[in-house]
Amino acid sequence: MTDHNRLEQQLRQLDGNGYKAYKSLRGKYYFPNFTLIIDRVQGDPFAKPSQCRVQIPQQIAEFSPELYANPSREVGLRDFLVRQFCQQAHLIQQRFGTGNSGLIAMTQPGPEILPRTAVLIDDQQVEMRFWVGLPARGRRIDGSQAADVLCRQIPQLLEGLLYRQLPMEALRQHIATNEDADWLRQQLSLQGLVAFVADGSILPRQSGVDVCPLADAIPFRSPASLQVEFQCPHRGRTTGLGIPQGITLIVGGGFHGKSTLLKAIELGIYNHIPGDGREFVVTDADAVKIRAEEGRPVTHLDLSPFINQLPYGQSTTTFSTTNASGSTSQAANIIEALALKAKVLLVDEDTTATNLMIRDRRMQSLIAKEQEPITPFIDQIQPLSTDYGVSSILVMGGSGDYFEVANTVISMSAYRPENVTEQAHAIATQYPSDRTCETGPPIQGNTPRILHLDPAALEWKGRPAKVKVHDLRQIILGKDVIDVSQVEQLVESGQLNAIAAAILFLHQQAPVNASLVSLIQDVMAKIEAEGLSSLSRFPEGDFVYFRRFELAAALNRWRSLRIQG
Question: What is the b/e burial string over 36-57, where b = at least 16 CB atoms within 10 angstroms of the residue's CB?
Fold first, then answer.
């Protein structure tokens, strides 16, 4: 154990040595107001920066237990501290030297308020996990600059994160917003709703790559006939559009806000920071976005509710392919979501396989059912709702046949919603589609998929496979690349880091002959009981909360996945 003075002395003595000499720094260092722990030291200035932690006793940090008295408040407080750390680090750090020299960084949050392992808090201490780029000149240690980073910049940064130094009003608003959003989500099922969009919300974003709210956007206003009201714990009276359970269509002309509304609903499974514009857009936590995903693998899955009686007698009850078509991939996405008890399916016509969505009367007349193995979604959507309690929200711009099965129809015109349910039903009566309902096998009750764990799948040349994450696109496990670029409810790369750790955990701990669904449920129960940090023996700082659906999505896209019947 070494105090901060000896750390500074040691750094100056290392000056000019080869970079690997930094490895001697691993350990604990006691500062007047905190403990610095250097867990992992980079071997090269261009490598991933060194992993550090600080532990601040609560008698120094002074966060009142009232600020983290329940899970909503705790997550809100931790999220706020992550953002404050990133802001402070940006202001004080000085980049110099080679590689990542001088970097001080924490996992970078988006507009969603999420549990992250970057900041942990309890009655004893606040722990913060971050990276430091240890300074170098070329590939030699810059001891003087390292002493400045570790012994002066980090203490200065942490001083600004103590409770008495934080912007109190912003902190309390952040926590209150998170608590209100959680409360609203809990009210949805009690009120027979699957989603809520508050009046005054700003739904459009600056662009497809800029998640900030669009300047001068039209604030959302709910139609009176679909308006509901809640009395939030902090915000008080809150009105907005309540989307009821059942089948809801969002219709309207192109560029009038249909997909923008669905995108907000899609991300309403997460809470959002004050100022995002979607703070009080909340969706059932078990809502899943469904799309076609041509090229994804499908492994030992029962697709018969949607695809059955293939030519030449090929079975679809244990269907596998390395390169799924649009319709097959969309059917697989639906079946996989339902296996994990999804309560709401979110579908945008623009990203679907048309032949899985609808077969109109003319096509039915030309191609007999005996020659068409696909059962379209339009014929399974009502049984999903009435028999299984699974609601659907669909953006539709081209198929009025769905009017006949819809419970609610919302028209978007210049980003303003209108309840047109009665008109849509009248049109369906006046102009019946005359199509024949095409039923398939029951949707739920499929045979469990038993996970077969192949030890070689996570080895590379006889060693444990290296794990990497590329943005929100890929998880790399050794030689395998898991493409999750079209899993649209992933929002931060830290979720992929945590999912990769969960896959490794499953591979190491899973019992023999357990179903994929039960294993996923076990992992989620472990996280619920012990936190995200329990997925790794190392104190990782870049794990971010994910749902069971996203873990399943990664596993189901893993080309080394092996399933037994």
Answer: bbbbebbeebeeebbbbbbbbe
